[in-house]
Request: fold
Amino acid sequence: MLDISGLSAGYDGSQVLFEVDLSIARGEVVTLLGRNGMGKSTLINTIAGILRPSAGQIRFDGAVIKGLPSYRVARHGIGLVPEGRQVFPNLTVRENLCATAADRFGQTKPWTIEAVLELFPGLSPRLESPGRLLSGGEQQMVAIGRALLTNPKLLILDEATEGLAPLVREEIWRCIERVKAMGQAILITDKNVKALSRIADRHYFLEKGRIALCCGSGALLDNPELRQRYLGV
Ligand SMILES: Nc1ncnc2c1ncn2[C@@H]1O[C@H](COP(=O)(O)OP(=O)(O)OP(=O)(O)O)[C@@H](O)[C@H]1O
Ligand SMILES: [Mg+2]
Reply:
């Protein structure tokens, strides 16, 4: 469904990504791993149309999305949970969730606010609270709910549980597993290798802006050298 080839990108003349190839099939859960500053967010932002690539191709579900602005990439069915969450501080939870909601592909069972609240019951009493008063965990639930309400073909999470308390992290992982079980394709970054290997089908390792390796969860768990070399854990 997502097919990236030879993708290069960067900022003002400093190249960060070098000829990246990556693909995700329908219903597949894929991770992007690598130490800080290796280019994970840069790749995600390039897919999402926030950054323009300098070379290469991005195809999504049969269409070329390379170089499209982010709102048009979203229309093709890519839902982003950005690094730092970016919940609108002056909108209520309900308004945040509805702000970008859409059912573009006529899903048989599209996401509704009720379905999001069933996934994250903790948001129910917060529906009329402004985004700026939410805890980090609540913000992440809103960011995930907001992306799901665009009914994406591919959900992208940049740092799924960063900065969250252990119990909240577990809740987020449980919800991501539920969403996966519904057949949702997901591209995800996070530092928690154990949780990722439980959830994901395949893992791409980024090293200095290049894909160094792609492997399954078994290889990731069984190979401490691999984790040490590419992740430092
Ligand atoms: N807006 C920007 N302008 C210039 N350089 C940037 C910008 N954002 C990131 N970079 C640089 O690009 C490189 C890759 O950063 P990126 O944020 O993609 O890494 P990352 O793998 O997501 O790291 P982290 O694990 O810390 O989120 C780094 O060297 C970073 O300093
Ligand atoms: Mg990042």
